[in-house]
Task: structure prediction
Amino acid sequence: MHGYAPREWGAITISLDGLEQSHNWLRANNNSFDHAVKALDLIVSSKGLTYDVVTCVNRKNINELPELKHFLMSRKTKAWRLFTIAPIGRAANNSDMVLTPTELQRLMDFIAASRMKDGIAVTFSCEAYTGTYERRVRDSFFFCHAGIHIASVLIDGSISACPNIHRSFVQGNIYHEPFLDILDIWNNRFDVMRNREWMKTGICGHCKDYKHCGGGAMHLWNEKRETILTCIHKTMNNESVPHTRSLHVTAVPDAAE
Ligand code: SF4
Result:
């Protein structure tokens, strides 16, 4: 990679989901941490790349965040973005991946206290509205850019927005559409992501924060579109959300308690 990365290259993100044990647990691969750190060292030492490190915060790594921050600083990392784990895929039925209300608040407090300190930019991802933490955990107010400023081509050629959005939002496939129609797809078929009135239903339908949040992030809606799967703002306020109800978790004990 040295000497091969021109400035005009876009951005690259590397996932590091905790210290070695917790990262390898989440990735289900005993070699994953070593590979990720080698890639990180290469990326950081390249002068031409814009990059950041992403960490999916869960119940196994929430207590490691200060140590992980120091580890990243020791590798000269300049940008670190933290996510929670959406209840989709194999995370849908795993309560180890779901932060409790107290842990979510600890995560927000950690980010707010770490912002732009010690030479590393720490931010919360664009995944959710955070209520009173908005502007303290990221540079801009929450807004889901899927289908408005973001399009993507998935591994099977499907045309969508962010890769983790439910497949029912796919708007075509590069292998089946004439090449010249692809711009037309972007211009004319992304209405479901641009007119989000349909999101005002389920728990969002009678939420007093809807005017600020707009119905949350697109990846938290499934093909039924009856209600958002989870809500960080409501969870932090100890309000019930569909995902924790489906796990039959009313109160997950906190690690620190
Ligand atoms: S319930 Fe819906 S509208 Fe209200 S804060 Fe949560 S995601 Fe946003």
